[in-house]
């Protein structure tokens, strides 16, 4: 089995969409192997978004993901589970996301796009280690 990291970002939690989002992944056949609701500490957010350090939007990413609770989880499924999750999420900009995707159905703006999903198996391994060391 293959694993990936998913975060229901603060806007998704604030809008009470955690259950809907989890339900979509479970109905697809993905399994939650770890999960928790937490306000992500700034240091952890900086480590998570390390590849964006120095970019113009980096501080906005960190501020947004730490503003209120997020639901962080590890999903397990077939090879390249990250691709399944990313397809279900839709493009980063909800305005470009098709109906039927999480962002297409619920997203309104690029800065608050409800969910994060790892973008490769390598990113998934790194991100899972950041949030759930040793699993």
Quick gist of this model?
With about 140 residues, this protein is an alpha+beta fold. The chain contains seven helices and four strands; from the N terminus they run E-H-H-E-H-H-E-H-H-E-H. It has a four-stranded antiparallel beta sheet.
Give your account of this protein's structure.
Helices cover 41% and strands 19% of the residues. The protein has 7 helices and 4 strands; from the N terminus they run βααβααβααβα. It is α+β, with helices and mostly antiparallel strands and 135 residues long. It has helices spanning 10-14, 18-28, 42-48, 58-65, 81-89, 102-106, 121-131, and strands at 2-8, 31-38, 70-77, 115-117. A 4-stranded antiparallel beta sheet has the order 2-3-1-4. It has a single domain (2-39, 70-131), classed as Nucleoside diphosphate kinase-like domain (Alpha-Beta Plaits), CATH 3.30.70.141.
**Highest CATH level, the class:** Alpha Beta
Which descriptor suits the 3D outline? globular
> Number of domains in the coordinates?
1
By CATH, the architecture is named 2-Layer Sandwich
Largest beta sheet: what is the strand line-up?
2-3-1-4
Distance between the termini: 13 Å
Helix content: 40-55%
Q: Find the structural class using helix and strand composition.
A: alpha+beta
Identify the CATH homologous superfamily. Answer: Nucleoside diphosphate kinase-like domain
Q: Radius of gyration, rounded? A: 14 Å
Q: Would you report the number of β strands?
A: 4
CATH topology annotation = Alpha-Beta Plaits
Name the beta content range.
Answer: 15-25%
Low-confidence stretches: none
Tally of DSSP helical segments = 7
- Mean pLDDT across every amino acid position: 97
The largest β sheet comes out as: 4 strands, antiparallel
Task: Return the string of H and E elements.
Answer: EHHEHHEHHEH
């Amino acid at each position: 089995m293959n694993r990936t990291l998913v975060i229901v970002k603060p806007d998704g939690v604030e809008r009470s969409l955690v259950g809907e989002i989890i339900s979509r992944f479970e109905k697809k056949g993905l399994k939650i192997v770890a999960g928790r609701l937490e306000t992500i500490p700034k240091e952890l957010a900086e480590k998570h978004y390390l590849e964006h350090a120095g970019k113009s939007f980096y501080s906005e990413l960190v501020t947004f993901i730490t503003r209120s609770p997020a639901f962080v989880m590890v999903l397990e499924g077939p090879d390249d589970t990250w691709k399944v999750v990313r397809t279900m999420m839709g493009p980063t900009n909800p305005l470009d996301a098709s109906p039927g995707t999480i962002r297409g159905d619920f997203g309104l703006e690029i800065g608050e796009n409800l969910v994060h999903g790892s973008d490769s198996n390598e990113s998934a391994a790194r991100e899972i280690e950041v949030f759930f060391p040793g699993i």
